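Reopening this ticket.

The earlier resolution said the output was attached, but the attachment link was broken on my side. Pasting everything inline this time so it's all in one place.
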Amino acid sequence: AAVSTFAPAILSAKSPAETIGVGCIGLGTRGGNLIEAVAAAPNVKVVAVSDVYGLHRRKGVERSLNPQAKAYVDYRDLLADPQVDAVVIATPDHWHCRMVLDAVNAGKDIYCEKGFARTLAEAKLMRDALTQSKVVFQLGHQARQAACGVQAKEL
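Inline output:
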C-alpha cells in the first residue's frame, strides 16, 4: 500500500532527456506495484516492460499508463531499447546479479528490489561493476522512501 505514495528515488536523478524512459523488468506482485508508482512519477514514462509470463506483460502495459509501451519476453531486448534510460528490476532474487550486470553493461540506471544478492560473491561482482560505471543504482526496500519514513528519520 505504501508503494503508491512514493517512487524509487532513482527517478529524481538528472537525465539528459526531458522525460526519463523507464523499463520495468519483472511484473509480478512487487513489480506490478512498482510500475504504478513509476508511471505516476513526474517527468517519467514507462516505455517498456519485460516478463516471461504473458499475462504479466499484458497487465504491465496496462498499468504503465502508456499503451505504446513495448512488451518484451527477454529482458535483454528491453536493455537494448534506446528509449530506456533506467530500469526497475523486481524479479526473483536469483535473477538480480545477472540483470544488474547486464543493465550496467547497457548503461542503464537501476532500481533493484531487495534482496540484492544470494551470495557474497554476487554482491562483490555487482559492487565492482557499479563502482566502475557511471550508472546510478538504488537498492529498494519497501517504504524506506515513503514520506512517513523520511519524516521519522528527521525526528
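Reporter confirms the inline version is readable. The helical segments are 29-40, 54-63, 75-79, 96-105, 120-131, 147-154. The domain at 2-154 is CATH 3.40.50.720 (Rossmann fold).
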